[in-house]
What does this fold into?
Amino acid sequence: MYNNGGDRMAITFEVKHIDKQTGARYGILHTLHGSFETPIFMPVGTKATVKTLDNIEISEVSDGLILGNTYHLWLQPGDEIIKNQGGIRGFMKWEHALLTDSGGFQVFSLSDIRKIKEEGVTFRHHKSGEQLFMSPEDSIRIQNNLGADIIMSFDECPPFHSSYEYMKDSVERTIRWAERGKKAHQNPTDQALFGIVQGGPHKDLRIMCAKALIEMDFPGYSIGGLSVGESKEEMYKVLDYLKDVMPSDKPRYLMGVGTPDDLIEGVIRGIDMFDCVNPTRMARHGSAMTSIGRIVIKNKTYESDITPLDPNCDCKVCQTHSRSYLRHLFKSEEYLGQRLVSYHNLYFLKKLMKDIRNAILEDRLLDFKNEFFANYYK
RNA sequence: GGGCGGGUAGCGAAGUGGUUAAACGCGACAGACUGUAACUCUGUUCCUUAGGGUUCGGCGGUUCAAAUCCGUCCCCUCCCA
It folds into this structure.
């Protein structure tokens, strides 16, 4: 259908409606394993598991598109093993769509145990200490083996407040790596490779990076290097810089963002796709996302509270269990607590994205935002 | 009845004369968490009107100074009768 050249495309993207109040986009993202309404939130399943949940539950609390991670699956169990079982989809028996991150984020999160060179990144294995090396070509090769519908360029995710000189060098290298990755990509008709825009807080570097990637013509573009410790204002500013630079007919993916307020603000700034570990990590640490704000379910105040986690939620956890019971599960270190709150948090974001999409279709996203924040604190 | 060891903050447990309100662990109470090195990490945890005050089974001593030394009493473990 929308495939430029006549060849099969791994993904196609249609923008169906633009919200008159904010300019936010409603669209459909077609993959070979399902079509998805956007804006969409994608739960993170780093090691081919959305922590604590099984596939049925993941299906219930996602729209059918989840993440895996190149670096972690490369180390364990190894991408060849996964390839031989039909990729991540066959390996974990996930019937829907997948996206893999390239390992670029680990260049940031594992910064103490890695070295960056033009050729690629040397890591020290975080458990064994063994020397590892990943080039942009390696990352793509591994992602070809993992077989996700959407894959990412190998980038450097630099600290947000690196010096301008460092950031410029880093961005230029990330662009070269994107080019190398694109050349190494073996099956672009099955897997859509996205370029990742870096540049920290700098408008000129962000725009330069975006333009260079657009020149290479990727089927979608990611925005990286955000939600790494900078303020929300700084993050929103970067999105504003890029809003009119990024191609309007390609999906825009804001990597690593997933607080309710950031999702709304991101959508308003033209973002179509999000992922984040926040809902599941917070859940495992005993915090719930609710329509009135964050609830730390471990707190003593919920000891005898027989109301549901979120009184406005219709998920099975809120329909069944009390805050008192959930708090008890956490205080007594029972795994079920982590599972139930993970389920609820993802459901909450799924519902939020649904509400956002409806608001866009009805040209009232700004009203929706104001209503949402009227009840929501923190 | 005799002998040994012991009683330290909510619990466990260091400390055997002087920066010791007392290590550390657990528990408790808070906080953090945004492309997952994460069931992880951080802080507080005798009282306080924040100046101080009162502590290491009880009472009484020694000393400039005691959880630490001495006497005595109470309680606990184990062993012998």
Remarks:
- Residues 335-361 of chain A form the longest helix (27 residues).
- Chain A has 15 helices and 16 strands.
